Automatic annotation (TrEMBL):
This is Unannotated protein. SUPFAM superfamilies: lambda repressor-like DNA-binding domains (SSF47413). Pfam families: BldD-like_C (PF21179), HTH_3 (PF01381). It comes from freshwater metagenome. InterPro entries: BldD-like_C_sf (IPR038099), BldD_C (IPR037664), Cro/C1-type_HTH (IPR001387), Lambda_DNA-bd_dom_sf (IPR010982). Residues 33-89 form the HTH cro/C1-type domain. One of its GO terms (biological process) is negative regulation of DNA-templated transcription. The lineage of its organism: unclassified sequences, metagenomes, ecological metagenomes. One of its GO terms (molecular function) is DNA binding.
């Protein structure tokens, strides 16, 4: 039996650059694709309907499992449906969230132009109750809290950064 000369890896070629996508990166992309959809409360069929049939439910499920390669045009179509930049699918969700702690002004959350602000308030109130350190107005949160919020809410890095810019207060040292 003849053996193949080499195993093929997914590659992206840019002039003068060849990039071999690792299995971990591909799985991360697929997970982000699914997490964003689920975070928005959409089923595969909802996405198909919202795209007017441009993104088939079966195909999207295959993209999310990593069983099928996605074209750039499909990625852009999916990003349009989710109302977010396509680049958000390509970067690890926590990659752009600054490490450390921030202090969130809970009174400002509802004024931030993020549709999920009510959900953010519920999450932060739960964190405060678990820690027992909430005075009703501000809460100190870790970058990992924001990363988890991003994963479970489906918020984009841009939305998280907008939230941080609008709702944090200066910390005295």
């Amino acid at each position: 039996m003849d053996k193949p000369k080499h195993e093929s890896k997914p590659t992206t070629t840019v002039p003068h650059v060849t990039y071999d996508a690792s299995e971990i990166e591909i799985k991360g992309f697929c997970l982000r694709l699914r997490t964003v959809r689920e975070g928005r409360g959409l089923t595969l069929l909802d996405v198909e309907t919202n795209s007017n049939g441009q993104v088939a439910a079966v195909a999207l499920g295959s993209y999310e499992r990593g069983d099928r390669k996605i074209s750039l045009s499909k990625l852009f179509e999916i990003a349009r449906i989710y109302n977010m930049p396509a680049s958000e699918f390509l970067v690890d969700a926590g990659a752009h969230i600054e490490p450390g702690r921030i202090t969130v002004d809970l009174r400002k959350i509802t004024q931030v132009p993020i549709s999920q602000s009510a959900m953010i308030v519920r999450v932060f109130k739960s964190i405060a109750q678990q820690r027992g350190d909430w005075n009703g107005e501000v809460l100190s949160v870790r970058a990992s809290d924001l990363s988890n919020l991003q994963i479970f809410s489906g918020l984009s890095t841009h939305e998280i950064n907008t939230f941080i810019a609008e709702c944090t207060v200066s910390r005295s040292k």
